[in-house]
Amino acid sequence: MHSIEIFINGKPATVAPSITILEAARQQGIELPSLCHHPDQRIKGNCRVCVVEVEGYKNLVPSCSTHVAPGMKITTNSPRVRDTVRTILELIFADHPQECLTCIRNGNCELRQIAAKFGVRDIQGEKTKPTFSMDMSTPALVRNPDKCIKCGRCAEACHHIQEVGILYTHNRSTDICITPEYGKQLNAVACVLCGQCALVCPVGAIHEKDDTDRVWEALSDSGKHVIVQVAPSVRVSLAEEFGLPSGEIATGKMVSALRHLGFDKVFDTDFSADLTIIEEGNELLQRIKHNGVLPMLTSCSPGWINYAEHYYPEVLPHISSCKSPQQMFGALAKTYYPQKYAINPADIFVVSVMPCTAKKFEAQRAEMTASGYQDVDVVLTTRELARMLRHEGVDFSKLPETDFDTPLGISTGAAAVFGATGGVMEAALRTVYEVATGNTLNDLEFTSLRGMKGFKTAEIDLAGRKVKVGIAHGLANAKKVMEMIKNGEGSDYTFIEIMCCPGGCIGGGGQPYGTTDVVRKARIASLYSVDLTMPLRKSHENPGIKKLYEEFLYEPLGEVSHHLLHTVYTNRQQTHEQS
Amino acid sequence: MSRVLNHELIFNICPDRYVDLPTYCCHGGYTALKKVLEQAPETAIKEIEEAGLRGRGGAAFPTANKIKMVRSNPSDLRYIICNADEGEPGTFKDRFIMTHIPFQLLEGITIAAFLAGAGHGYIYIRHEYPEAQRIMRESIIEAQKSGLLGSNIMGSSYNFTLELFSGAGSYLCGEETALISSIEGKKGRPRLKPPYPTEAGLWNKPTLINNVETLSNIPKIIQNGAKWYRSLGTQDSPGTKLISLSGDVNRRGLYEVPFGISFNQIINKYGEGTKPGRAIKAVNIGGASGVLIPPDLLDTPLEYLACAKTGITIGSGAVFVLDDTRSILANVHNRLRFFLHESCGKCTPCREGLRQTNIIMDRLLSRKAVKTDIDTLTRYTRAIQDASFCGLGQAAGNSLHSSLMYYAEEYLAACQDNQLSHNKEVTA
């Protein structure tokens, strides 16, 4: 396509003909304000803070939804534009609790940032008093509709990114609000708790349930042996919270930071990711051998499990019985670990740092107590960990790089890629191939399984048997796969990986604000480079895992494994249909 | 409510009587459709274009252009929607057409549908108009029975089905994209434009949306020709306009007037002026979303160009007269309350701007406002007009804006600090 010439603030600019004024301005280094706009979402045009002046137009035009045209003369900095944007911000604030000092988004609220840029100093409008009630009904998410600015990003993520669609815009005029159906609470509807709504909310209207105080409390309790596990994707996203570029690999600094906080041991969920591969890989081979239910579906992503339980209970037999790496870790942390180091398991407090809000729900499921205790006590998101580090005054950039503790900190490159969509499949194939064929796999990079395509497929030769695999990420894609299985079209697949969030865990609902597809790609690339630097890159080569089987589990899918590492799923379709 | 349509013009029908199909046909009804079905569609489109017909719903978009846009779209399916939502307070013309001359509307819809290449259409009527709904429903059935709707209309190869859609009654559903959403079973909120309905309308198919009055003009244009049509009205604004005249005049009602006539003439000739001893204080033109003008602008002719120059929006053709017993502020506040209630709430300026302007109007009317409130009111009004998502939001501040322009002294007089400063000046 030919480019066109436009004028922004009197200066000529050559741009592609299909872009919006907002995109064109940003390309020219002019950062126009926006609230309802999100680069990965459809254009909404609700907030109107991005309005600009275009010659020949009677009214101001929203730059997010107006496309450039040849010769278009755009002014982004006239008094008319500035006054209008300030007025609109003022109008938003007038209907906002203005509890900025105590808000969870203090410091990273998009509304505040824009207001500061535009020098909003005074709110002439009369403060109105919203009267919505807080929704604290789930262990994962908190909704505070009073702070909602009705930008619609959360509902857009829920409806069009995830296609779960439990958040709606209700009523009209000033009664407008975004809530689950009929103003119900989240626990009364089939919310999968993926947190994609929280990730895109520009203000503090919906966010993760903050569990940092519970961790501070445990850390200050001398009677507690507090251990922490960190999910693979957190090491490539945490640094963003401290101003470092997207995808910066911060494994060593992160470990030091966690030690700084006072955890007794800093372990790695990558260890139990390797363990998951052993159990899941063997489960797959067993299903293949004994004509079990195929395709087998992965079970690492708790948002996906919630989705299947609520919306596709008929596919539950397809899902691997393996617990997620977080829960496998928790079960071992209160059995194998205390047994090995002579610690009373009752004193052990397990904290997880996860990219995910649904993990908070997963940890407190009734069936996640195989160790005799709640396997994982508290789940923190990446954002919560960053908050704790800031609270502690940790200067992240100055931290030395240190290694995880052993034995639950030993891991492989296979585990590292778990954080990206396609990673579980790639890790599994590295092991399944060698176990099934007895041959050494030299070409470890299954590049066809990588990337942000919604549904990826590949075919692998496993000892003469062609095995077709598929990978879906984001629930909109998962939905397509579920329909495929329901229609019987999934029967030529043997193994399908499903991740609830777009991009996999690196795009989870608990990741730093500002996560976009561009950021997701940077994080994914970093995870693959972590994999390349690891001395061991296949799960079954992890010496810690080998020892675990020797000392404790004895064999994959064995009795101990079955008890501690596997689970069952519940049909919860009725629950929300009746509520 | 409607007194008389006293011209033998576009709506040359006895005002107090419902016109049934045989009577309509006796007066030349359905000759236009017959003519159109026998010609190349381009001929009739050209006639409408030469007649200079513009949309009578408020936006005044050239009707022939709209038809051409839909027609030229290479879609497998095209729709026509007759916008009979008529939510503009003070406007009652469409209801009159539907309840009195329904077949003129049906003929207009059928012609427009044929010209646009639409095979299916909807008449969107709010449920608050049960009488209009009943008559249109019965008329559709009668037209079907008489071969004027359905398959092989009037013996031609043209098939067209029409159904009535009952809206829940929201002002915003008069906005064409909100109306489409409503028919689709979604919330009546406006969509982003472009794409315009002519490209992607109902169910994403090209859709022709026109107002009742606009469509009812079409049979007369075809029947009598563009030249005849242009002999009514002016060069800039051909044809006639239905005026819903109400407020403080002696003869309220619906009048069909040729374009070019002044507002003074409308009020004095048709409305027979104000009550004895009462003078006009202001006139609201174009309904709740229209402007409030002072008497010295009433010589402005009813003409799109002349009105635009004076800042008058003809809109749907409502003329509401306020005599000198009326409070401008109370009147404006009424309109603002209406818009606050009817705002869909989607965009910030309309939703929050109307909330805040209403709060300030409350303060003004209860004599609790101060002069700086007027500055804030002005600023908020500008944001509502300049930055709202849809045309209805943008128009919601029109009466406020024009009254602040023409009746600033009433606003100032309502401020509690006005008297004080005035006294000070006097003392000094």
Your description of this structure?
- The complex is a heterodimer of chains A (579) and B (428).
- Chain A is α/β, with parallel strands linked by helices and 579 residues long.
- Chain A has 20 helices and 17 strands.
- Chain A has helices spanning 21-27, 79-94, 110-117, 153-161, 196-200, 212-219, 251-261, 269-289, 302-311, 325-333, 336-341, 358-363, 382-392, 413-416, 423-437, 475-486, 517-533, 543-553, 559-565, 573-578; strands at residues 4-8, 11-15, 51-54, 61-62, 73-75, 141-143, 168-170, 177-179, 206-208, 225-230, 265-268, 296-297, 348-354, 378-381, 455-462, 465-473, 495-499.
- Chain A starts with a strand and ends with a helix.
- Chain B contains 18 helices and 9 strands.
- In chain B, helix 5 packs across helix 7.
- Chain B is globular, with a radius of gyration of 23 Å.
- Chain B starts with 20 loop residues before the first helix and ends with a helix.
- Classes of the chains: A alpha/beta (579), B alpha/beta (428).
- The interface between A and B is medium-sized, with 35 and 34 residues.
Notable traits:
heterodimer; A: 579 residues; alpha/beta; five-stranded mixed β-sheet; four-stranded parallel β-sheet; 20 helices; 17 strands; B: 428 residues; 18 helices; globular; disordered C terminus
Write the layout of secondary structure elements.
The complex is a heterodimer of chains A (579) and B (428).
Chain A lengths: L3 E5 L2 E5 L5 H7 L23 E4 L6 E2 L10 E3 L3 H16 L15 H8 L23 E3 L9 H9 L6 E3 L6 E3 L16 H5 L5 E3 L3 H8 L5 E6 L20 H11 L3 E4 H21 L6 E2 L4 H10 L13 H9 L2 H6 L6 E7 L3 H6 L14 E4 H11 L20 H4 L6 H15 L17 E8 L2 E9 L1 H12 L8 E5 L17 H17 L9 H11 L5 H7 L7 H6 L1
Parallel strand pairs in A: 1-5, 10-11, 10-13, 12-17, 13-14, 16-17
Antiparallel strand pairs in A: 1-2, 3-4, 3-5, 6-9, 7-8, 15-16
Chain B lengths: L20 H6 L4 H8 L2 H11 L11 H10 L6 E6 L8 H8 L1 H15 L3 E7 L3 H16 L15 E7 L8 H8 L23 E5 H20 L8 E8 L5 E6 L4 H8 L9 E6 L5 E3 L10 H7 L7 E6 L4 H15 L5 H18 L5 H17 L3 H5 L2 H9 L1 H6 L2 H12 L1
Parallel strand pairs in B: 1-2, 1-4, 2-3, 5-9
Antiparallel strand pairs in B: 5-6, 7-8, 7-9
Helix pairs in contact in B: 2-6, 2-9, 3-4, 3-9, 5-6, 5-7, 6-9, 12-13, 13-14, 14-16
